[in-house]
Amino acid sequence: MPDQSKKSWKPFFSLIRKAKLPWGLYGLTFIVMFLTSTFSLMSPKIMQRILDGEIFNQPLVYKYIGLSIATAITVSLSGLVRVFATSQGTRNIQNTVWSKYIRVPLPFFNKEPSLLLISRLTHDPQHINGAVNHFISILMSTYGLVGSIIIMWTMNVKLTLVLLPVIPYILIVSLLVGHFTQKTQDQVQTRYSGMTAFLAERLPKIRLIKSFGKEQQEIEQGDDVIDDQYQADVKRAFVDLYGEPLIQSVQGVIMGLILVYGGYLTTTGELDVGSLVAFYLYAANIHNHVQSYGVFYQNLKAAKGAAHKISDVVYSDSEAYKREKSFAEVIEDSDGDIRLEHLAFQYETQDVLRDVNFNIPEGKVTAIVGPSGGGKTTILSLIERFYEPNVGRIILGHTPAEKIHLDEWRNAFSYVSQGSPLLSGTIRDNIIYGGNDNITDEQVKEAAAKANALEFIEAFPEGLDTEVGEMGSKLSGGQRQRIAIARAIIKDPDYLLLDEATSSLDVETSSKVQEALDVLMEGRTTIVVAHNLSTVKNAEQIIVIDQGKVNGLGTHEELIKDNDLYRNLVEIQFAKEQRLAW
After folding, report:
1. What CATH number should be reported for the domain holding residue 522?
2. What is the pLDDT of residues 166-212, one digit of tens each?
3. Domain limits at 281?
4. Which sequence positions are flagged as catalytic?
5. DSSP states of 182-200
6. What is the phi-psi region of residue 498: left when phi exceeds 0, alpha when psi lies from -120 to 50, beta otherwise?
7. How far apart are CA 68 and CA 57, in angstroms?
8. 208 shares a domain with 68
9. Residues 6 or more apart from 135 whose CB is under 8 A from it?
C-alpha cells in the first residue's frame, strides 16, 4: 500500500464536488454553531459582572438567563442540523458510489473482494463526510479559541501569558493520543471486516462443513478470528485507558494554573473574584478548542485515505452505453446473424480463446460443446459484451458490435445458466425483473405457465407473493430454473443464451425444464452450451471448442463422422448413460 502521506488531496476535493454534498445544510450548521460560540464567549463576561456585585441588576440577570436559553437552543439546533447534514452527506456519497458500481464493466468486480467493495460503500463515505463536518467544527474552535484569548488578554495579561504555553502542550497530547486511537481503531475495523468475511463465507456453507465433519476445525478457526477481534478491542481499550487520563491531565494543568496563579493575583489585588471565575470559564473551553485540532487532523488523514479508495471506484471507466447505431436499426438492415471473427481473449495473463471464428445464424440453434475449461462460457460472456475481446470482433449483420448501443444490445439477449440467480423478494418480483413496470399478473402467469412453473407457484399459499429467500434459497433448483425461464419469457429476447441450464437437475425436473426451454427457444436465435450432448444433437449447428480454439463445426451427424474429439465426447456420454441404466 502506498504511503498515505504521499497521496495527493486532489481525489478528496474532486469527490466532495462530485458527490453534491448538502452545502446549504453545512452553511446553516456553520451559522448556528457561530451563534453558539458567540453566546458562549458572551456568557462569562456577564457572569463576571454578576459576581462583582451586579446580582440585583435585573436587566443583566435577565440577559444572562436569556443568553443561557439561547445557547441551549442553538446547541440543540446545531446538533439537529448536523445530524441531517451528516446523513444527507453520507447518503449522497453512497449514491455516487452505488450508481458507479452499477455502471462499471464486469471485469472491475473480478479485481476486488466483494466485502471490500461493500466497505467502500458503507464505511469509507463516513470518513469523507466526517472531515467536512470537522472542518466546520475547527473553524468554530478557532473562532472560540482566538476570541477567548483576546477577552482574557483584556482581563489580565499576566494570567493569559501563563496559560499560552499550555496550548502547544494540549496540541501535542491531542495529536499523540489521537494517533494511537486512530491506529488501534483501524486495527479494530480491519479485524471486524475479517470476522465479517469469515462468517459471510462459512454460514452459507454450513451444509458443506457438516457433511465433511469439519465442525471442530471451523470452531477453532472461528475462535482464532474472534480472538483477533478481541485482541484489537483490548489494544483500543488500553489506549483509551491511558489516553483519557492524559487528556484530562491537560485540563487539570489549566485549571491548576488559573486557581494557583489567579488566586495569587487576586490576593495582590490585580484580579477580582469575578474576573477569576470568568477566566476559569474561558480557559475551560480552550482545552476543548485546541483538542479539536488533533481530532480534526486524525479525521482528515482517515478521510484522505478513504477518498483515494472511493476515487478508485468513482473515477474508474464506466461502460459506454450509447454508441453509433441502435440495435433495431442494425437488425432492420441485416440478416440478424452474429459472426465471431478472429476472436482472442485472456483473463489477465491467461489465454482463454485464440483465433475463434464461426457464424451464428438467425433463428436457429447453435450448440457449443467441448471439454471443461475450453472457453465455452467465456464465448457467451463476450457475446453479451460483458468483456471486450483482446483481438478480433463480434459482428451483427454487417455492423461491429462495439458500434451498437450497449444497453439495446443486452436487452436483446436473455441468459439462463445452471445456477440462474434470483434476488430476494417475491416470485412475482423475480419474474417481472425481466420486463418493465407495466406487466400484469396475467402476463406473469402466462410466462410462468409456459415455463412449467405455474403449477408449483399456485401450490404455495402466497402464490406469486411467495418470498424466494436469499438467492432463492427457499426454492428447489428446478423451481429456480423455471422462474428464471419465466423471467426470460417475460423479457421476450431476440437471442437466447443457455449455459448448462439443465445439467444439475434430476431426470424428472430436467424434463420439465427442457420442455420450458423448448417453448422459450421457439423462433429465437439460440446459443446453447452443454456437456450433455443428448440435449444438443438436434441443433442446426454444433461448434466444438477445445483449449480456446474451434476444433470442429457442423451437425451432429457430420461431427460424429469427421471430428475425433466430438466422437469421443459422444462415446463417453453414451457409456455414462449405459452405466446409469444399469
Report:
1. 3.40.50.300
2. 888 877 877 777 778 778 877 887 788 778 878 877 887 787 788 77
3. 4-314
4. 500
5. HHHHHHHHHHHHHHHHHHH
6. beta
7. 17
8. yes
9. 296
